[in-house]
Amino acid sequence: MPFSSIITLITFIGTILALVFIQRRPTYIFAGALLVLYVCGVVTSEQVIASASNKGLLTLILLMLCSLALEKTRFLRMLAAKVIQKDYITTWFRLFCSTVLSSAFLNNTAVVSTMLAPIRNNPYHPASRLLIPLSYAAILGGTLTLVGTSTNLIVNSLLIESGEPELAFFEFSKVGGLLVLSCGLALFACSQFLPAKQGNKQQVKEYFIDAKVQQNSALIGKSIEKNGLRHLESLFLVELVREGRLISPVSPSEILQQDDRLIFSGDVHKVKQLNQFDGLLLFAHENGLPMNNLTEVVIRTDGTLVGMSLKQVGFRARFDAAVVAIKRDGERVSGKLGDLVLKGGDFLILAVGDDFKTRKNLSKNFILLSGVEPDDSLDGWREWFAGLGFVCVIAIAALGGVSLFKGMLLFLGALILTNCLTVNELMRRVPKDIWVIISSALVMSQALMSTGLLDNLELWLGHNQSSLTPLTALIMIYILTWLLTELVTNNAAAALVLPIALSVASSIGDQSLPYILAVAFGASASFISPYGYQTNLMVFNAGNYQLKDFVKIGLPISIVYGTTAVSALYWIYL
Fold first, then answer.
1. How distant, in Å, are the alpha carbons of 14, 76, 406, 476, 499 from that of 444?
2. How many Å is the Cα radius of gyration of the chain?
3. At what angle do helices 131-142 and 534-542 cross, to 10 degrees?
4. Predicted confidence (pLDDT) per residue in 359-404, tens digit
5. Residues 378/382/386/387 CA torsion (nearest 10 deg)
6. Is the pTM value of this prediction over 0.70?
7. Most distant CA pair in the chain, distance
8. In this predicted model, what pLDDT tens digit does every residue of 339-354 receive, in sequence order?
9. 398 by DSSP, 3-state: which?
């Protein structure tokens, strides 16, 4: 066997073993495999560059970047507010259907991320009774279209690289629709076995944020629940101050009145969500300062502010700043922000003006920590442009009017020009790990083909063709992909098994499409392990689950999913 073939085979097997035993470092493992193949001369510089700039891979990156603009709108949050109802069965079906439909066209990680907060904060049902169905519904919805999950786009990019025709937008829909129906019913039946665990909805260490309901606000006369104030991401409504009276906990049915002060607890980076509510004014806004420039400080124990309330301090005049939020370690703060008496060691988030840094009294009163960059939100015409623009591009691509790559590239440019997304945001959120994994997998695929290892596999399969029928080949490819998905990750499983699937199809003389789809569906079949799929990992931590919870629910779902997928692929395509 030639040296290049030996190196490629060792690298391929070593990559699988490393992924199994070092599950949390797939990016480093794939990057290492690429370097080994490149240093040993198995692949050329041109092949490495071509893999990193693969059209299918770039389409996936563009899709994920454009979906960032959707995360900054209120549309998914409004959808989430409609899902939670008092009746568990109604809530379950609304959650399942809305998540499936959203995940068919949007990044399913973004969908799950948006739904996490309203589910954790809902007053009717334990979050652990809904979060596993949320993740599984997102996985099932992703099987419906080409853009439903990164796995489908990875398979498509590998096909383009290998010279196969790219997949149609709705190529997955026939089998995916059957999976949604069969697994949806199975999931509903298994949901009775979900644990009822109550998570901690607030922590003392979180920042407290004060907002006031203004005159003529659209919030007045509506309940907390109807206004969607229970469904914010990483912010939880803990108190309501009305005419000097403190209401805590705040009932979802509480009707808001003018001049009510709402006290939120949570992640200060998410504070700009509150700008999306008509007539809800933050304490900093009342002092005439925007929140474009935030700074975190700690009050000195020997400073002049200790023992004074924020109203007495006169922040705007003294420091050219206003308090956005306050945190007091080891003690819960309560009541209106302006009436709080400051203590040494209090953490403050300040909205600062142009003259803040020139004030000479800063070092006497504060320890300056760092700037805080809040997650921005879109409103007005930009919000509608981001939402409708994304839907239109997906629709036009689905109808064949323009390629998804071209549509997303033009839309991303429009988002930047209209300031819906900034270059800094894009640089921060570029999915570097996915880029490295897929481009490295493409390089490995090139090495497997150029060294003749796949030809040898085809030859061996040809000699054993009598024992390998189309059905057994389909089952073999699906099970291999599924096992790697549960042991490794979905993206890695798809990248590693697809070249093998193409060789199997070629050796037995069948069309390659059902085997390609078997890889795609097998790579999305992560139900037993919380580590094989990103949405599972997200709900695993949020729902305070144990591994046995996933096994108990995921095992029957995996059996139904696998049986349905293989049967449908066989009867539809073979």
1. 12, 38, 27, 21, 10
2. 27
3. 170
4. 878 878 887 776 565 556 777 888 899 889 988 988 888 787 888 8
5. 80
6. no
7. 88
8. 888 888 888 888 888 8
9. helix
